[in-house]
């Protein structure tokens, strides 16, 4: 156990040296590449203004997203009414999608329990 801890410490020290050596140049390069996205002046007030704009823009987009959701729901209802005409491929894709959703749910539960399969702490 102690040897693993020393190994982790050595790796962390090595990583921090790399960041200290290259971090500043990477930061400058990143800002230069994305200067069109930087708002001037970079103040707290400007950040608050942008945060408010993002919030209210997203709030204003709710009716459009709700309308799109209703269209998707109508499509699913139509498919359900005409389920006898579905092709095997479509049913297979839907089954795989459902299986994937269930798998993500299971993985999320396992992660939420701290990667314990049974959920019990030993």
From TrEMBL:
GO terms for biological process: ATP biosynthetic process; proton transmembrane transport. GO terms for cellular component: mitochondrial membrane; proton-transporting ATP synthase complex. Pfam families: ATP-synt_G (PF04718). Keywords: ATP synthesis, CF(0), Hydrogen ion transport, Ion transport, Membrane, Mitochondrion, Transport. The keyword Transport applies. InterPro entries: ATP_synth_F0_gsu_mt (IPR006808). It is found in: Mitochondrion membrane. Belongs to the ATPase g subunit family. This is Mitochondrial ATP synthase subunit G protein. It comes from Ilex paraguariensis.
């Amino acid at each position: 156990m102690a040897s693993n801890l020393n190994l982790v410490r050595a790796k962390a020290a090595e990583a921090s040296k790399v960041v200290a050596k290259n971090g500043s140049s990477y930061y400058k390069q990143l800002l230069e590449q994305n200067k069109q996205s930087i708002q001037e002046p970079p103040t707290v007030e400007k950040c608050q203004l942008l945060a408010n704009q993002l919030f209210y823009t997203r709030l204003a987009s709710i009716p459009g997203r709700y309308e799109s959701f209703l269209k998707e729901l109508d499509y699913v209802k139509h498919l359900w009414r005409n389920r006898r005409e579905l092709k095997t491929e479509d049913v297979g894709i839907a089954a795989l999608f459902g299986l994937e959703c269930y798998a993500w749910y299971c993985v999320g539960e396992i992660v939420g329990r701290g990667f314990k399969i049974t959920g019990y702490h030993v």
